[in-house]
Every structure is written in C-alpha cells, then in structure tokens.
Amino acid sequence: MFGWGRLRPFFLLLTHLVSSSSSSGLDSGTRTLSTPSPGLLLPSKSSSLSSPALSSNGHDAHSSSSSSAPAETVAVVHSQPGTHTRSRQSKSHHHAPVDLLPDHALLQIFSHLPTNQLCRCARACRRWYNLAWDPRLWGAVRLTGELLHADRAIRVLTHRLCQDTPNVCLTLETVVASGCKRLTDRGLHVVAQCCPELRRLEVAGCYNVSNEAVFEEASLQLSPLHGQQISIHYLDMTDCFSLEDEGLRTIASHCPRLTHLYLRRCTRLTDEALRHLALHCPSIRELSLSDCRLVGDFGLREVARLEGCLRYLSVAHCTRITDVGVRYVARYCPRLRYLNARGCEGLTDHGLSHLARSCPRLKSLDVGKCPLVSDGGLEQLAMYCQGLRRVSLRACESVTGRGLKALAANCCELQLLNVQDCEVSPEALRFVRRHCRRCVIEHTNPAFY
C-alpha cells in the first residue's frame, strides 16, 4: 500500500497534468482561477457547452473588468471520453510518470481530491474516467459557491452515481452544501429520494430550505425501500431561517439516531420544538441553539431530558434563558463539557454555582456579556471545575482580579482566558500568567504585556 507521503509528488504532478489538459483544449475559452482547488470553470450563458452544473467556488472566472453583470461559474460533468480523446492525450502524456502508477495508487490519490476536481479528472482519459467514478471515492459530496446551481449539481451527481445501482446511491453517506444559497427544496428532494444511506447533511446558510423540504425528505425515506427511520447522525441547518417547530418535530420523530444537531440562527424555533427533540432523539451529544431568541428556560428544561448524553450545548444570545434553565441542564447533564451562554444576561453567580457543583468535568465555558456574573461565580468554578481549559469572560463588567486569581490558582490546565473589556488590573493578569504558563490571555489592558 502506498503512503500519502510517498504519493504527494505524484498528486502534484496529477493536478498539473489535469490543469494543462484543460488549458490545451478541454476547457476552450476559459481560464483557471488562482485558487488551491480550481474547478472546471465555464461561463454559464456565453459558453457553447451547456452541461449541468456540478461545483463552483463562487468567483467570476471569465468575465472581464468591463463586464457589468457578475457572471456565474460552474463545472461540468461530461460523458466518458471517447477513443479519439484518449489517443490524443496518450500521445501528449506518453512519458508522464503518473501513467506508470497502478490503479490502486491512482485511486488513493483521487481519494484526496475535492468533488469538483474529482469530476475534472474524469475528463482526462478513459482510464481516469473509470477510476474517478469508482464508488469507493463517493462516500461524500461537497458543493460550494453562492452562485452554484446546487439543485442541478445534486441531480447530475446522483444520476451518475445511480448508474450501477438504479435509483439509489448506496455509497453516499455525506452531503455538504453549506453556503450554496441556490439550494432549494428540490435539491433536498433528490437527496432524500436517492440517498438512503445518508448519515451527515450540512446545509448551513441555505435559507431557501423550508419545512416542506423536511416533510418531503421524511416521507420519501420512510418508504418500504428505505425502512422506517432516517439514519442521519449529523445535521447542520444553521441559518435555515424558514425552519419552524413543525419542521423540527418531523426531523426529531424520524431521525432518532441524531448525535450532532446545529440550529444556529433558526430564529422561528421555540421551546415547543425542543420538547419533540428530547422525546425522539435521546442520543444527542452536541446541540447548538445560538441566536434562537424564542428559546427560553422551558426549552432548556426539555434539553435537560437528554441527560447523560449531552456534552456540548450552545445557547449564545438566547436572552430568555436565566439561572432557572441553566440549573435544569446542570442537574440532569453531569457530563457536560462545553457550555456557551454568551449574551444570556439573566445568568448570575447563582446559576454558575449550580453548574460548577453538578458538572465537574466542564472544559470550556463562555459567559461573555453576562453582566451579573462576578467573582463569586468564578470562585465556585475554580473550586469544583479544576479541569477548565477555556474560559471567556469578555465584557463581564462585574469581574475583578479576585475571581481571576481564584481561577488561576486552581485551574492549572487553563489554556485560554478572554478578559477583553473587563476591569481587571495588570497585577491580576500577571498572576494568571505565572500560575498558568500555557494560558493565552486575551485582554484590552494596555498596561499588561
């Protein structure tokens, strides 16, 4: 078996050859972007080729500086190269060392390529076409670019990957389309219809995804062909503004194996949605509800029902959360490692005391912009959570040097301390530096250096 270190020079040569072949005729009328992973870029309207979109890096690859309208850049999936193409390229690269590599070595190199370059390699010659579409390379699809026609890209890819197993992509377990603003319910419909083995779905920033897409995906994947449950473990729906309680209820009831769920800035969700989550998804380890401003203490009471599984919780800027909700989490989730409660202005030393006594394994805590947190809460943390490594107290105006000294004296493993915009003396910061030599101190005190 070839190691990646030994194959790295061949990989660089391979990338150069593919780029050269594109510039010598395969990509007529285009130029390659100066990015680490250039795709097969074509102007979407002016080009004579009209193949479906595959991937994009979101930049204009062909328009001149005088062009008034930003042009779209897309990549193309082509059919298998013909005999003429192969003979032409075999002559030009007859002595290329990469041609001497066995198939299994090329497959290992291809396994390190992103989705757009893998499709690009399929255009080089017939051998590379067959290798590039090897099912073992297609456990994941990653699409990027705000201008990418993500729906069409997903449709083209899934159609190609379903050729050997009609109607389903049995190898595809991960779909990442974060930032593809043109992804809509139609694209997710194709994923639901063709990817029964999907485990990870990331659609962060795809604000055109709605409740209807969630309902449709659940109904399709619950057909007799696919069983009675959706096997997704990781779901990122950050910035999916249209997601509402009913949509999350559908996700929860049909995805009982969820372990990682990110719902940042899903601003329409309320406490009621979290009740369904706790009922149907008992294995959740990481949950982010940052900027879900309709979530309050009742919602945290429902989250606390996840009990021993929960390790990571973010409720940053959920201004309805107070000590009451934090007390529920602290009481029922003793294995909590990470809590982000930045901007929860109702949190006080009383809530921190409950957290410290009930969650001694806490490693990371962010209570920045919590004006009612003071030295008393920090002293409780220092006493019971001595394994703390990262603490953010940014803009906690009630924190002074006394609380910092308690943390430094007891939490020797501290690696990061953020006290920006806090009224702490240089002497207290020097105390922290003496006792926690590996700690990075982020501060705004010009007297401390």
TrEMBL record:
Composition bias type Low complexity, residue spans: 20-56
Please name the SUPFAM superfamilies in this protein's record. F-box domain, RNI-like
Q: Which InterPro entries match?
A: F-box-like_dom_sf, F-box_dom, FBXL15_LRR, Leu-rich_rpt_Cys-con_subtyp, LRR_dom_sf
Record Gene3D superfamilies:
1.20.1280.50, Ribonuclease Inhibitor (3.80.10.10)
Q: Show where the F-box domain sits.
A: 95-141
Give the UniProt keywords, A-Z: Leucine-rich repeat, Signal, Ubl conjugation pathway
Q: GO BP, one example?
A: SCF-dependent proteasomal ubiquitin-dependent protein catabolic process
**Region (Disordered) residue spans:** 20-95
Coiled-coil zones: none
Q: Which GO terms describe its cellular component?
A: SCF ubiquitin ligase complex
Question: Which regions are flagged for Basic residues bias?
Answer: 85-95
Q: Where does the record locate the signal sequence feature?
A: 1-23
Under CDD domains, the record lists: F-box_FBXL7
Q: State what protein this is by name.
A: F-box/LRR-repeat protein 7
Identify the coding gene. fbxl7
